[in-house]
Amino acid sequence: MIDRIKGLLETRYRISTQLYLGIGGAVALVIAASLVGWFSFNQVGDVQRRVNEGRVPEMVAAFRVAQHSNSLVAAAPRLTSAVSAEDFAGVAASIDESHAALEQQLAVLEQADAGDERFARIRDHADALISNISAVKDGMSESFDLNKESDQLRVDLTAVRTKLGEILTPLIDEQIFYTITGHRLLGEGPAPREEHFSEEEFYRYYHLGLLQTNANIATELLANSYVVSDASLVEPLKERFESAQSRIERSLFALADTPFHAELSPVFSELFALESVLDLRARQLRLIEHQNDLLESNSDLANELLSEVEGLVSASSDSVQAATQASTQAIFTGRLLLLAIGLISIVGALIIVWLFVGRVVVSRIEMLSGWMRSMAGGDLETQVEIGGRDEVAEMAAALEVFRRHALEVQRLNLVEKLANELQGKNDELESVLADLRKAQDQIVMREKLAALGELTAGVAHEIKNPLNFVKNFSEASADLLEELNEVLSENGGELTPDDRDLIEEISEDLTGNLKRIHTHGERANRIVHDMLSMGRGAGGLEPTNLNNLLDEHARLAYHSKRAADTEFQLDLKQDLDPEMGEVEVIPQDMGRVFLNMVSNACDATDERRRTIEQADGSTDYSPTVWLSTKRGDETAVIRIRDNGAGIPPDVIERVFNPFFTTKPPDKGTGLGLAMSSDIVRHRGGTIRVKSEPGQFTEMTIEFPLEPVAIEEDADEAAVQAQ
Hints:
The chain has 16 helices and seven strands. It is α+β, with helices and mostly antiparallel strands. The two termini are 86 Å apart.
């Protein structure tokens, strides 16, 4: 209990306790001010929200309702005055936009609770207005259809009138001419007087005249209907048309037994069918009257809607004014309370700063800060001493402990720094030594390759001269044999048939032998040319027959192996794609690849042969190398497969590394596959290896038919491989 009381007494001297009390009082004042501000601003916010979310949108929506309703009323007459379907569609589109905007503003009014009764009246007027405009739109659509039908009937009326004139007038003239003269057709004699100058013929003439008169009356009645402007005037026209129709039917009945009836009856049927012109005109006039009534109704509805909107705006304005007064009162009260709390906070802060912070905390912390700056400057000899039982005293004690430890660490850091510098120098020297050894190895290998190239070029050059002599003398001997055969053909009569046959047989044998010498000389010359090319370095891309290039270098590898070991045997099988043709490659580089891989295949098969013979003396094994090519749509694929010793899996990953080889030092340098990989890669291709130890190894070379990369010089490739 005593310890607890002692702890409490010590706690009251701590800076943290005093700061907590001072900050707690400040926080309490801040919370009080925040509550006052929150309460005041909440009241203002509620008022403002009611205004912004209720009355202002309500007033704006009311104004826009009036605006869009006036737009609809103004657009309705433009609908009725549209002269074409395009004009009508344009006006209808603007009306639809105004309608959508009106519906949107009505929805805003409905959400703002703009007074149920007033909004219901506004809604009823708006619905009636929209319904009237929809009726006008429907009426205009019907009007366009009626106008189109009316225009067609007018055309039909003109056609029927013309047809009646073309038929009736000649018939009347012919009938009166026949009745008076007795001549029906020109070139024929007159009929007897009692036949043509009879009551029956005059009766026919009379009815033809009546038909013409009534037809004119009927067509005029139909034509006059287009200029009538009142639907009530169409009915008298219809009655008069039906009366004329009745008279026409009586006249047609009177002419039923005459040839005129068959000609006139169809035309008058067409005329009677045009009676629909009158009904159509009546519908048009009634539609116009209905649209005029709708336009007048729209004007009345717009006035009533505007009156309701004005009332709604007036009510909203009163509500906004009352809310503004309440907001002003809440702001005034909040300002007074915040001012009082602010004054109290300022006085309390001044007291805390003067009595506690300035006189107790700051002066002691400045002393401690001075010691810390001295220590940071390197002065670790001055002791730190500050009395008291608060946090500053504890910090001074901790700083004194830190000063002592820093003296020890300073000594240890100096030793460690010297050790690290020494280790860095050692690492740097080891790295330089490794680089020197690597550079030395590369220089030695380049010297070996250069010497090998010079030796190969020299030997090939020395061999080429005898080969040229063999080639030239074989060609000269062939020419001499041709001259000998010509002489024998000219002077062969002095020889016996047996001697002649013997000479010809010997000539043919000599000719064949010379051709073989020439062929093999050419082949040896090509090999020497390739060796010289290898010595000089690669050339540029050339269209090359890959099948021939693979065959030549495979045989060169075989004969080289055969020349070095007379016991070496190999079955060389080929499956070359006849469609392979020529592909742009560097012949010398690609020949090196083929030569190297076939040589490796020969070594692998010979190694397996020797292993089998040493194991059990069996001779059943047949060393075989398969060569195949395949031309694809975009790539060329070459496969070289042998049934040799195979490659272990852990070796396959390293076969393309420079200077890696499983052969004895005098059998290989380890650069062949590395250089081959670089050559194929620079051509844009890849080499894949597939092998099973003791069974087979297959090398697959694949590269695009079209070059995709710039080839490099062979020496540069060798350097990169190293």
